[in-house]
């Protein structure tokens, strides 16, 4: 992975968890060839690790195939919530949790 290709290493992305794609605003250009072009996705792998679904892939320079970053996305169900995480030098780090119930108990206001 290459810190010279990104503006900010592991930027905080709040709840934006990407299963695919790239955060191009953080890509300043390839440190190897010096060009700033689209980013290719390579070596994509998806599978289960226990009850977690894990998706990994590499961000590669379109021109010289230099490895910019490795991306990891996870999905799991914990109790009544879908949990998402993302960790990537280019795309950043993020976590999200969404209730699988019709009404999210965390968003309910007390009646009294």
Automatic annotation (TrEMBL):
Pfam families xref list: Churchill (PF06573)
Keyword Nuclease among UniProt keywords: no
GO MF, one annotated term: metal ion binding
Top-level taxon: Eukaryota
Keyword Zinc: yes
Signal peptide (residue range): none
Keyword terms of this UniProt record: Activator, Developmental protein, Metal-binding, Transcription, Transcription regulation, Zinc
Entry similarity comment: Belongs to the Churchill family.
Name of the featured protein: Protein Churchill
Organism taxonomic ancestry: Eukaryota, Metazoa, Chordata, Craniata, Vertebrata
């Amino acid at each position: 992975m290459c810190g010279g290709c990104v503006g900010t290493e592991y930027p905080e992305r709040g709840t934006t968890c990407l299963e695919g794609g790239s955060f191009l605003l953080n890509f300043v250009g390839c440190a190897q060839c010096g060009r700033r072009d689209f980013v290719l996705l390579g070596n994509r792998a998806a599978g289960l690790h226990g009850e977690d679904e894990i998706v990994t892939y590499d961000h590669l320079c379109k021109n010289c195939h230099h490895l910019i970053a490795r991306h990891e996305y996870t999905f799991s169900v914990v109790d009544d919530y879908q949990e998402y995480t993302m960790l990537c030098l280019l795309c950043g780090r993020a976590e999200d949790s969404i209730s699988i119930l019709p009404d999210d108990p965390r968003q309910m206001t007390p009646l009294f």
